[in-house]
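User: Hey, quick favor. My workstation is busy. Could you predict this chain's structure for me?
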Amino acid sequence: MAAPNEVAARVMEHLVLHDAADGHGYSQGSNRWGNDVVETLEIDGVTYRFAGGDRDCSSGIISAYEASGVDCGGATYTGNMRNLMCKTDNFEWVPLSSIAERGDIYLNEREHTAMCRTTAPDVLMQFSIDENGAIVGGHEGDQSGRESNIQAYYDYPWDGILRFIGNGSAPSQGTQSPEALNVCYCACSQAQGWLPEMIGLSDTSGSGDTYAGDGSPIVYLAIDMPGWYQARTQQSGWLPAVRGYSTTDLEHGCAGDGSPITGIRCYYETQNPAATGWLAIEYAAANVGSPFMPAVRDLVDTGGTADDFAGNGGVISAFRAQLIMI
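Assistant: No problem, here it is.
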């Protein structure tokens, strides 16, 4: 079996080597973590899964490592990659004086990141810019053939290198059931602010509720899981996908903008399928004064609609979620 950093490098190669319009383009918008098409890559007899669609420089590298089963600590952009990825003990920070290895991550913490493909000569793999020379607004896919690319080493300048040193595992899961691995989440309501944390369908405050909500509009939602989630709000429509979990970081730790949420989209990325099987997040929403609507499993509505999110445009006042086997 290939080492996790080798798997990540091959996934990254897959993402940046392609025919133009059929490939993976650049986007720093809400689709920066890809789309709902699941792509597969077989490496040494093992099948790895990851989202199709576009990326930006950081989401491309993070998703390549996560596809290989490596816990990236909830990293979401260049500014938190070093801190969060090193906290997992799967990565270390090394100075530029070191010779880069395949799978190493060159990082400028303010602006850009790229992955080392080869060391002699040193060649980089990266997501650069969309077909219009912008970071949002382009068409899906690599329209120019250069939105994602491979090129000779250059100094961005880089601050240093993130190097994989772990065994690739997410926090030890053994043969735990989906219930034992369940997602944690918090809702912030218009009436009371942040409500007690939920673990699956259990309220940690002991209220006996099986959902997060107090009957008033939910204005922020934070979900702790490997994967991503999005909120649609009355004020802004669909907001960018979020991977963090924090009730104090309103930009990267939760979804929402302070106005009522009208739609929620979630996608769970299984970290260790050999131990747990393939998992999905099953989630449902209820509007103010109304019962729960049919559940959504990742991006599939169990109610039979073509929607890939929970909600019908009304103001959401309750949310619940749990993990299931798929």
